[in-house]
Each structure stands twice: as C-alpha cells, then as structure tokens.
C-alpha cells in the first residue's frame, strides 16, 4: 500500500509514519512525506497512491532555510481535495489535523461538508492529539476498512 502524507510538522509526520510502520506493517518504501500544499499536490499529480493522509493547515510551499513557505492555507487539505476532483484523481483520503476549529467553523462541520463534496474519496477527519491514542485507533480502523 503506497501512502502519501502531506504534513508540514516534522514531529507529527514522524509519529504518523512510525505508527504506519509499526502498527500497520507498512514498509518504509511505501510511505512518502511532503511538507506543503504545492509539493503535496505535485506528488499527487505525478504519482499513484493507495491512500492520502492530509493535514488541513499547510504552508503554500516547503519551508527551507531560504523560504518561509509563503502563505499558510488554513484549509489547504480541503483545497487539495478540490484540486484532485478537478484533475479527476481518486485517492482515498483522510484529514488528520491538530485543530478543532478553522476560522470559526468546527472540524465536525467541515467533516460533514467534505463527505458531501467528495463522497468517492473522502474517508473522514481525525483529530490528532499527541497526548491521546484515539487518533491511532480511528486511523487504523479507516485504513483496515479500505
């Protein structure tokens, strides 16, 4: 199973990757990580994946020593789903986010809207919290149901 993680937080992506490798027996060669909206979208367009794990809030570009990543897209994960629909790319997708609210809109409301807007690919939102393990159980369940 080839998985793309689009996540700008190195700690979060490392924890998620380790979870995939240890709990779901995914090999390291099957996991790819991109750090921004732009690099994530490029990877999606240029490659084939069996699963997409998306952060909701993403910098426009990869952050480097010379580039601050540009504007932060508060709902960048949602925009990636819209671009995938426009390009007719169908990858089962899960939003994995550390935020419960986006500009006054709750994560549960966004989740409902995304199920309606992307019924063929959207598998749901998972609230990621490092001090809890509920996200792991939810993610494992969603992946095992693929």
UniProtKB/TrEMBL annotation:
What this protein is called in its record is: Response regulator receiver domain-containing protein
Q: Which organism is it from?
A: Arcticibacter pallidicorallinus
